[in-house]
Amino acid sequence: AQLDTPWLFTWGNHDLLDHYDHAHKLLADSKHCLYRGGSTGGNYVIHLTDAQDEPLWDFVCVNTTNVGVQSAQETWLRQVAKVRTNPPPTLAFFHIPLLQYESVWLHSTAAGIQGEAVAAYGEDGSGFSCLKLLGNVRACFCGHDHVNDYGGVREGIELVYGRASGHAGYGGDEVRKGAKLITIDLDRRQHRWQTVFADGTHWQPEARR
Fold first, then answer.
1. Contact (Cβ atoms closer than 8 angstroms) between residue 162 and residue 171
2. Tell me, what DSSP letter sits at residue 27?
3. Could you tell me if 193 and 205 are in contact, meaning their C-beta atoms sit under 8 angstroms apart?
4. What is the mean pLDDT of each run of 10 residues along the chain (209 residues)?
5. Are the beta carbons of 102 and 117 closer than 8 angstroms?
6. Among 93, 129, 111, which Cα is nearest to 12's?
7. Residue pair 71/103 in contact by the 8 Å Cβ criterion
8. What letter would DSSP give residue 98?
9. pTM above 0.70?
10. Among candidates 86, 94, 79, 58, which has minimal Cα distance to 130?
């Protein structure tokens, strides 16, 4: 907010509260916050448009609560998919990874750092199919596993880990704390990402597929 920059919020498994309705309102009313998940359990879509209100990109935020993508999230994704016609390029954001994050690493279709197993919390893999229903999803970004930072492509969708940031939490002695910078090319309708650090340096896997 102090940067006068619009920002999104995606719920994580440690965001446990006694009064969610109050939290939804606080987020929606916060300065420059684009949060719109108050009526949908923390799930929402932000549409990026041009000056003529033509769609450019969509950003889908999914609340994986503390158990990952389950039936409630899948139902919401199916509902969104029904109203999306000719969707623009889309990026999805959620905290707990999908099961397919494990398969892209095990099948050597990903590059980067894996310091711990993928914690999908028993998710059976069907969440990925629901995301595909949205159409034109280019990439998904998750967090949760602090010492994983890699990207791999599954059925045309890039599955990317965000690196753990901040001063607390485990893993900083194994994988340096950082953040994910995503850059969008509006003309080419492409995205790229890199991990950035507080001192201004950055990192990317040497090769990705």
1. no
2. H
3. no
4. 93 92 95 96 97 96 95 97 96 97 92 94 92 97 96 96 90 94 95 95 77
5. yes
6. 93
7. no
8. P
9. yes
10. 79
